[in-house]
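[job 0412] stage=complex_fold ligand=coenzyme A status=START
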Amino acid sequence: MEIRAMTIEDYDEIFAMWQITTKRALSSADSRESIARYLERNRGMSQVAVDEGKIIGTVLAGHDGRRGFIHHMAVLPEYRRHHIGKKLATTAIEKITAEGIEKTHIFCYKDNLTGQKFWSDFGFEKREDIFDFSYDNVKNM
Ligand SMILES: CC(C)(COP(=O)(O)OP(=O)(O)OC[C@H]1O[C@@H](n2cnc3c(N)ncnc32)[C@H](O)[C@@H]1OP(=O)(O)O)[C@@H](O)C(=O)NCCC(=O)NCCS
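[job 0412] stage=complex_fold status=DONE, emitting structure tokens
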């Protein structure tokens, strides 16, 4: 198993993987064009885990100049609990830190207890003092 930088050539394989691991979190922001733009804006930061040529894990990592953000942290079910997720998250945070960013945020569904446990055990602090508000730019235009 190796961890390497994600490229847009991985798109079809990672999008197929996300149908299994991350379906509910997918949106128009995950189109090929959006992911290409994301990777271009955050060069070398997003990672894939590859085992015998097959992508088995992903993490999108980037920052906005102030704070780091991680999305689509996922490992295929049959490869879980072998610290592949931990290695992907560690690499993502190293890349974000190398850009001079001091803190990283993730979003996690309230009913995703595995995700919450993973991030808590990794060392993320669960915030009880913040709500996430979203605004639909297009619908509200
Ligand atoms: C969350 C996810 C990425 C974890 O990947 P993984 O490779 O299995 O995780 P790791 O093996 O690196 O786990 C690291 C540690 O996290 C915790 N952990 C991970 N999965 C856990 C589980 N199912 N139950 C309890 N603790 C868990 C443990 O502390 C684990 O260390 P340990 O195995 O030594 O006890 C994977 O379960 C997944 O893809 N889930 C679906 C997508 C998802 O929910 N992503 C998170 C979005 S917020």
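The mean pLDDT is 98.
[job 0412] exit 0
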